[in-house]
Write a structure and sequence with these properties.
Blueprint: E1 15-21, H1 37-47, E2 55-56, E3 65-66, H2 70-81, E4 91-92, E5 98-105, H3 111-123, H4 133-136, H5 142-153, H6 164-174, E6 188-192, E7 195-199, H7 201-214, H8 219-230, H9 235-252
Antiparallel strand pairs: 1-5, 2-3, 4-5, 6-7
Helix pairs in contact: 1-2, 3-5, 5-6, 7-8
């Protein structure tokens, strides 16, 4: 019997839940998200399993995988390995295999767009507060996160929750000297309108130390001020802008 007011969907982009054996589920191989599996296990034991992941066929080079909920699957696997009872919402097949509710349908259809969705799906849980994009990186394996963002940018569009200046900051400071990110010796990017400059790293380090003293080590305030400074030109940068604009005007004349 259908629930009161329920309507059977007829469109092409509908979603439905199917129960799938836990052992057959494939996670997203490039997922950069970090997870606290022990707390997930405790939450499942307390609240049950109420948030099904979604399958996306374009992930893993077309082999398919979970576009979200990868940590939830790891937590369920951990529970099963420990011999714990399946949480509410998880069924058990005749062979004893745990059956997991998974969303299917409404396919994104493109691996890079699916990766962008996965990042937004995580980041949007922190949007609306005072969390900066740099602060959000703490949810991730930072090198993998940068790799995913760089790969997504190839399609010409970053996730909704990340812009170009965010990515620039991540690459310069979050993982600075990691292999594959060799621009750390070029200084710190500062942007003013269409112009971009780089401040010597030693000078930027002095800024950061001054901020730490000014805000008594408050990470949120330091990061917020740091982002503001990255968008604010120094007097030297202002002079360079004036010189460039004068040169542009002379050429145009």
């Amino acid at each position: 019997m259908a629930r009161k007011g329920a309507i059977t969907p007829q469109g092409e982009n509908i979603m439905q839940i199917d129960y799938v054996p836990l052992a057959t589920l494939r996670k997203w191989d490039d997922n950069p998200k970090l997870h606290d599996l022990e707390k997930m296990v405790r939450a499942f034991e307390t609240d049950g399993f109420v948030d099904p992941p979604k399958f996306e066929s374009s992930l893993n080079h077309g082999a398919g995988g979970l576009v979200n909920g990868n940590g939830r699957m790891e937590a369920l696997q951990l529970m099963k390995e420990r011999g714990l009872l399946p949480p509410r919402g998880i069924d058990v097949g005749g062979d004893g295999e745990w059956l997991i509710p998974i969303y299917f349908g409404n396919e994104i259809g493109d691996e890079k767009k699916a990766a962008a969705f996965a990042i937004d799906d995580n980041n949007l849980t922190m949007a609306g507060g005072n969390f900066t994009p740099v602060y959000m990186t703490q949810m991730y394996n930072e090198e993998k996160y940068i790799d995913v963002l760089r790969d997504v940018r190839e399609m010409g569009e970053l996730p909704v929750t990340v812009d170009e200046i965010d990515l620039e900051v991540f690459q310069e400071y979050v993982i600075g000297g990691s292999q594959g990110y060799t621009r750390k010796d070029r200084g710190v990017p500062v942007r003013w309108g269409k112009y971009k400059f780089r401040v010597p790293r030693d000078g930027f380090k002095q800024w950061v130390e001054a901020l730490e003293a000014r805000f008594d080590g408050d990470l949120n305030k330091i990061i917020g001020e740091l982002r503001r400074m990255l968008h604010t030109p120094s007097p030297e940068a202002a002079a360079m802008v004036a010189a460039r604009e004068a040169k542009d005007a002379a050429v145009a004349a």
